[in-house]
Amino acid sequence: MIDQLFVSGYTAVMRIVEKFVPGWLATVISILLRIGAIAAIAPAIMMYLTWLERKIIARMQNRLGPNRVGPYGLAQPLADGLKMLIKEDIVPRGADHLLHFLGPVLAVVPAILVFAVIPFGRNMVAVDLDVGVLYVLAVTSISSYAIFIGGWASRSKFSVLGAIRSVAQIISYEVPSVLSVVVLLMVVGRLSTVAIVEAQAQQWFVFTPWGFIGAAIFFLSGIAEVNRTPFDMPEAESELVGGFHTEYSGMKFALWYMGEFLGAFAISAFTTTFFLGGWQGPSLPLWPMCLLMIPVVATAARMPKLLRAIGVVALAAAAPGLVGETVPSWMWFLSKTYALVFVLVWLRGTFPRLRVDQLMGLAWKFLLPMALINIVAAGVWVMWPGVVGTVVSAAMLAISVVVLVRLNAPAPLQPRRYVLVD
Amino acid sequence: MACFWQALAGGGMIGAGVLKGMALTFREFLGTYPAFRWVLERVGVTTNSGIVTSEYPEKKLEHPERFRYFPFLVYDGTPENLRCVSCKICEQECPPQCIHILGPAKDAQGRPLKVNGRTIPEKFDIDMSICMSCRICVDVCPFDAIEMDNQYEFAVTDRFGPLVFDKNQLLRSNEYFQKIKPIEAATVDQRLAAKAKKAAPAASAAAPAAGQPSQPATTSQ
Description:
A: mainly alpha; B: Alpha-Beta Plaits; 3-stranded mixed β-sheet; 38% helix
């Protein structure tokens, strides 16, 4: 019941609507409901991703993170949003006004568009496109136009340099990203995101040799495509001030950030969909989760006492009612996605930014050959089903990883001789 | 070709460095939560000190004794008995020129008004919005009349008016100085006592000789 909560809600609304309005209007309302859900969820996701990222990064640096606005800083995204809305929007003199405006819009639109094909749960997808994967790849690559338009229209050297770097980076990483998805088509045989998730009912693809490597390549090149640390060359603060968004302020700046964070979420969501089994998961009972939440809610020291008491009582009351229910599919999907978001932030908290040549080297000299070999490995896996295929493809991939890493290792530097000293 | 095989053989486990770095950040992440910290300690994983943030308005850091912010004027006993004689050295030396002294105060006849044998400033203003906490005024003062305070919460809503502190706002007792900076106050007290001792014999010798010196005008306003 909980599994289909949102789907049944939608069906119930549509049943009522269909009784009162003609067929074509019902179709329009159905479309609007789906769009409305995405339009409501996407900004909320973006706002709380900023909060989540700041909190996690802060903890990794032994800090507390935002904690002034609301309990645990939970109202911080609202305060930030309000600040961005009422800030002055400065357009540099000599900037191309139309393109300067178009840049951030073009960055956000594709980031929201891809939400249409994310299967959030069983039957929970806005549109089950037959060309879902192709649609995702096509739409996400628009963001390089957005960045270049925005950077160029700003008429600032920092912006243009950032934009140039960005285009080079996005085009480079597009190649391994697309090739890592090819393996899915070989195995599943369809481009629909829903079909890909359903094909993983027996085994998540990440547990196959080609799936593991494919997931790693897709995730890594995804991080690079949405310009996140450690691949944030286009907006390298320490070198380019702000990169392509140097000349942006106010809500346009917020839109750039929205595009970036939605992109980060989308990359996590699609890695989940393509390789981590999407909304599939072992059918665990739901009530123990409910009980596990009780001590968490009870010990949330910064929450108002009344809210904690209500939460504990509600959870305790809900637990017996949930006996027989399994963890719903959308909860599986969201937990996997947020686990990957955590990994994104974790990477950001750990690694410094790559140098430009290292960045390009990673894409062309490591990820691209690996993606090609991965296709062959997937072919082997399909050709010899069972243990033989798995072992052979795993050996192929392991050997090629070792060879590629070793061959790409930087040449050891000769000890430097100081002529005048010696 | 030899280079090729050499490259293949060299180095440790692939990705070991990456995993090591990520393990470190994750350990620090967990170490900030008391429950996870407890588990980590049982397992034997060492973490750093946990959260180092001091949540300012609720908790304040203990400042070292030498911590300084804005200057104040010292008085002995009663506020009338302030040490400043309005010599205006600090006013001259102040690099950002935030000290403004009017004085010495004069009586109706135009003679300098004296409290305990010392002239007093008529007005003594310090513009705290300009003061840069350099402590030069303290160093140049020959009477140890001005010292640095360690209070730092002076937030006001107006940039100009309220941050100009007048004499009454600047006055603090010597006991206050001894309380906030015991070591510094002790050396100052010692120095003043030595000065008084040196002055006392001279004064007692001079007093009978002069016959009728200008009596300490203990006029209280």
